[in-house]
């Protein structure tokens, strides 16, 4: 589980709700019409802007950032060094039998076992990186769209509340509920945008950059194994991808 993502969201919501409780009643900020306008309108707008399958895919990716653990570059380097050790000890063909859930790593091991040209491996990884960027960009664009639409529908709710208030000036008892709709919709829209949608879009972008780095490590590792499958030399080359303080070859 990604603790930083969950902790950031929990702390942010706790600060907002804590300020609400300290200043008055929480129920003062609960307004069903406002929720309908902001949440319903935002979801409707994003469904118009993107195919339904892409919206579902984006929400699935957004949930995964909480469940998946961040893989450090050092771990990917260690995996490639282990691949080099296997190839040195058992030969390149032994890499065909490596079992891994990482499809790119599995493909790279297959290419190494086939003694493929490094240019072929580079082209294959470039295609993988391009396809991954396109897939991930969908999720980022969806959440950026949600972040843009939510405050806009908050303003729409504000205008609705103001119109209702102005048309009922002769009834003082109706001014309070109308003003509540006017203000809480803007509040909901800004909270959803700045605390949920934009941070998730940013996290998805960060994960994309992280996975690109992992693919580059796999590519350089595969090329190094084909050129010289000495695990020590493979590690020395791949150690450039990790921080100096983490560079320690333990074999």
UniProtKB/TrEMBL annotation:
GO terms for cellular component: plasma membrane
Membrane topology category: Multi-pass membrane protein
Motility protein A N-terminal domain residues: 7-88
Superkingdom as given in the UniProt entry: Bacteria
Main location: membrane
Subcellular location as annotated: Cell membrane
Family membership noted in the UniProt record: Belongs to the MotA family.
Protein name: MotA/TolQ/ExbB proton channel
Protein's organism: Alkalidesulfovibrio alkalitolerans DSM 16529
């Amino acid at each position: 589980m990604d603790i930083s993502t969950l902790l950031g969201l929990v702390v942010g919501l706790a600060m907002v709700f804590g300020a609400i409780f300290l200043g008055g009643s929480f129920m003062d900020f609960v307004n069903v019409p406002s929720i309908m306008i902001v949440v319903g309108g935002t979801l409707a707008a994003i469904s118009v802007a993107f195919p339904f399958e892409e919206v579902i895919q984006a929400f699935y990716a957004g949930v995964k950032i909480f469940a998946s653990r961040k893989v450090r570059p050092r771990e990917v380097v260690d995996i490639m060094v282990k691949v080099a050790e296997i190839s040195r000890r058992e030969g390149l063909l032994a890499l065909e039998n490596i079992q891994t859930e990482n499809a790119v790593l599995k493909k790279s091991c297959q290419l190494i076992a086939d003694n493929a040209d490094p240019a072929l491996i580079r082209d294959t990884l470039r295609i993988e990186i391009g396809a991954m960027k396109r897939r991930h960009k969908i999720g980022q664009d969806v959440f950026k769209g949600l972040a843009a639409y939510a405050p806009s529908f908050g303003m729409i709710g504000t205008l609705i509340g103001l119109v209702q208030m102005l048309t009922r000036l002769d009834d003082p008892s109706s001014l309070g509920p109308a003003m509540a709709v006017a203000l809480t919709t803007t509040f909901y829209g800004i909270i959803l945008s700045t605390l949920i949608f934009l941070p998730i879009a940013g996290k998805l972008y960060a994960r994309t950059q992280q996975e690109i780095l992992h693919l580059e490590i796999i590519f350089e590792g595969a090329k190094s194994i084909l050129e010289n499958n000495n695990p020590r030399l493979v590690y020395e080359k791949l150690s450039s991808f990790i921080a100096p303080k983490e560079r320690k070859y333990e074999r």
